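Researcher: Going back to the complex we discussed earlier. I've cleaned up the inputs and rechecked each line, so this should be the final set. Can you rerun the prediction on the complete assembly and write out the structure?
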Amino acid sequence: MQTHYSRIAGRSLERLSALSDGIFAVAMTLLVLELHVPVMDAAHTLAPIWTAGELDQEVLLGQALAKLGPSISTYLMSFMTLGIFWLGQQAQLNHFRESTRVLSWIHIGFLCAVTLLPFSTSLLAQFITYRVALGVYWLNLLLLGLLLMASIRYAARAGLLRDELPPAARLIHSRRVVSYQVLYALAFLLSIINTYISIAALIALQFHSILGFELPFVRRGLILAAS
Amino acid sequence: MQTHYSRIAGRSLERLSALSDGIFAVAMTLLVLELHVPVMDAAHTLAPIWTAGELDQEVLLGQALAKLGPSISTYLMSFMTLGIFWLGQQAQLNHFRESTRVLSWIHIGFLCAVTLLPFSTSLLAQFITYRVALGVYWLNLLLLGLLLMASIRYAARAGLLRDELPPAARLIHSRRVVSYQVLYALAFLLSIINTYISIAALIALQFHSILGFELPFVRRGLILAAS
Amino acid sequence: MQTHYSRIAGRSLERLSALSDGIFAVAMTLLVLELHVPVMDAAHTLAPIWTAGELDQEVLLGQALAKLGPSISTYLMSFMTLGIFWLGQQAQLNHFRESTRVLSWIHIGFLCAVTLLPFSTSLLAQFITYRVALGVYWLNLLLLGLLLMASIRYAARAGLLRDELPPAARLIHSRRVVSYQVLYALAFLLSIINTYISIAALIALQFHSILGFELPFVRRGLILAAS
Amino acid sequence: MQTHYSRIAGRSLERLSALSDGIFAVAMTLLVLELHVPVMDAAHTLAPIWTAGELDQEVLLGQALAKLGPSISTYLMSFMTLGIFWLGQQAQLNHFRESTRVLSWIHIGFLCAVTLLPFSTSLLAQFITYRVALGVYWLNLLLLGLLLMASIRYAARAGLLRDELPPAARLIHSRRVVSYQVLYALAFLLSIINTYISIAALIALQFHSILGFELPFVRRGLILAAS
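Model: Rerun complete. Updated structure for the full complex:
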């Protein structure tokens, strides 16, 4: 029975893409719920201390918004992360001929890691100086990377890649995942000194990934390791 | 008028798939809202008791995260459940030639059961030792199964299955639903002893379903029952 | 400039469908947030009063769940409503050749009414005996109907209907909207007696619409009115 | 490695559209969460003061709903804004032959600005008399416009526009963005007098944009500036 079911379930790349786009869309939009609007009463109760006019109230609201700094940083970092992994998953799915049940489950696992990112982000925003919170965030990044890696390796072995693809296509995907995961791990290790340095390094890496610079040294090491 | 309307409404499998993917995506992502970030103040107010340095604070946050254990278990169980039923529904929709208004309503009912799962999950996470909470969760699973069953039976009777399908296709779908529903019911009955055993059995079943092992004894019983 | 822009914007029925499916999916799933899990502490603090064992706790949770009755009724009513209007909109979009900017805006307005339904539902669930709350809910239903009506009328006048459609197609759509809107209004008027009767009538109408019975008297009246 | 990756990532306009529709759908539906249902207890505790019957309770609820006025205005303004920018983005994507990684990132940035709008709206609804809150809202509108502008300029330069497009197509898109952004900025400047006037001007502009009137004076100025 199961054998039959495996043959009929999870073959559609189109619906896997649709579910993925949906989950990325919801996760990206849920991140914003972490940006809490300052509480009205607090601003008002603070106001009398200044015993000043309308302008001071504006200043107070400005100050309250400035306190959203850490939330905004983690929001942007996570939005960029989701963008990067959305593009990475999309590039892979474009390279597959069809899906199988196993491949579908690898991607459902990947999507599970995507839905966990708003939680990890929220944890980090509230405990931005805690290594434990940063560790949870990093584990989330690692999980995303490992599952994308598992996807391309399985697809290559199971013969699901499009025929017109050059043999190097699989390597491009997995090298990219490995090199950034190595750098994410190094960035996380910087938290031994300070979590802010670590977060700054992660954000720099995401910008690096988005702007599409070369990573020559990692590349060379990987070519050596792969040969 | 109604007859006319039935002839023009709910024929598109494509839009039914799109609505389904959207609802599954939102339900899967909403599950994560059940994972509450530990409250900052509590951790801070606890800290002075230890009168220790930075490291103890980290330990306290780690302990607070460890308390999310039950929530994380039910989160994973529900995510797997949604993945399983998403694949099951997708496999069915792939087998249909077109939809009808009745079939659309069966699937809207199924999607209603999907949207209820975050509620059942949340209830179970907060009342994990209560048989009533587990019963609600099990009823939700039952409803999902019954509606998928109704869908394939109706589609077969109404001649909506693709012509190229082997006659056994309908049986594969319904046997799979029946066999797992029997096992879900048995797992729920284990809650007479203890709800944790029951939940462990449900999680084991979901892993079983995902990994795609055979269910030979159920299969044989069903073949007998169907012959 | 505007003229030019009108010629290039909002022509894609495909993306209008995608946005609609997304909004319906989110609105349908958000409805469940109205089902609040009973608060843990309350159940625990109640427990000692009974000074009984485990079973009484289960009974207490069962009683707390039973109190969700009104929320569950309004949840189901709204889910059915969204299903009905989703099918109605889908049937229309299937009948259009292409979209225009005006048609897109009519449907964006319709989607705005869709996103308001979780609010109206929540209001009604919490103030189920208030005519004001029921009035808001009914206005929401009316808005949904009026905009679907505007859509089909505009599309017919602007020549956007598919050529292969029989001339009666437009009438089927608008008659259906008008007849149910008349019945919704009558159901709302029953709230002069009691809001529960009114809600029961609305739920009965939604079941009627879903099960697809004829509405002969309304039909005949409309044929007369239209001739 | 990066060069290779750029060649394979982010080429699909279809999935970019799907992600966009998903994010717009979630953001549009999340806006409604800003409409808080009046608190039940408050209405009940107020009731005894009036020591009147059922009717007074209804009046109280009506008054409580009337207080949602500012929230409803900002809700509608933001819903219209999202509708306008959804159509604007859609019109652009329809004009592109394919995507590139850079174009994908411009649109992911645009979608980031879309997800921020529920936050800006919520901030403005709660601090409707504060220029700081209106400034944040205006910055959000500006960001949306700048990124749409960047998208069309980049696409034209990178040769991604469809061949059949008249050369003026790029100008239509960018002129429209520029002219409305100039008007948004002027509307924001009105907040020197009063934020309500400023909001009224913004709402008027959104209606103007939706109804599709000409903006002759801005047009002429731009033609001069562009020649």
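Model: Worth noting: The radius of gyration of chain C is 22 Å.
Researcher: Good, that matches what I expected from the previous run.
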